[in-house]
Specification:
Layout: H1 3-31, E1 41-46, E2 49-56, H2 59-64, E3 76-86, E4 89-90, E5 99-104, E6 110-116, E7 124-125, E8 130-137, H3 140-144
Parallel strand pairs: 2-3
Antiparallel strand pairs: 1-2, 3-8, 4-7, 5-6, 5-8
Length: 158
Amino acid sequence: MTGRRVTRAVTILMAAVLLAASCSAKTDAADLNKPNPRLPTVTLRSGDIRVIAEVADIEIERNRGLMFRKSLDEGKGMLFVFEQDQRVSFWMRNTSIPLSLAYITADGTIVQILDLKPYSEQPKPSERSVRYALEVPQGWYGKVGLGVGDKFEIPLGK
C-alpha cells in the first residue's frame, strides 16, 4: 500500500472506532432514562430484623438505582453491590421516593446512615470504603432500631 492509502485506511478505521464509541455512549445515557426492571432479591437479616432487597450488582443497575420508581414498601430496599471495597457516593437524580441509605462494609457492618432528599443532585459520599449500600424507605433504620455498628448477614456469593 502507498502512504496515501495507508493514511486513508487509518483515518477510516479511526472514524469507525469513534462512531462505535459514540453509539455506545448514547446507548448508556438512554439506559439511564428508564427505570431498572425488577431485579433479583435477597433477604438481609440483622437479628430478628429482615429486609427484602433487590440486588443491583452491575454498573447500569447501580447507576439507575431506584430512579423513576413511584414507591418502595416498608421492609423492602435496594442493595448496591460493588466489586471491591471503595469510597462511593449517591445522589437522588430522577428519584421521587424519600430514602435512607446505609453504607455497609464487606463484613455487613453499617458504618454510616444518611437520609436522602428526593430529586437532590447533591452527592452523599461514604466516609470510608464500603462494599455495599442499602437504600430503604426514609426513616426505616430508626423505626426498626438499626444504627451504625449494627451488622447485616448478606447472603451473596461475592
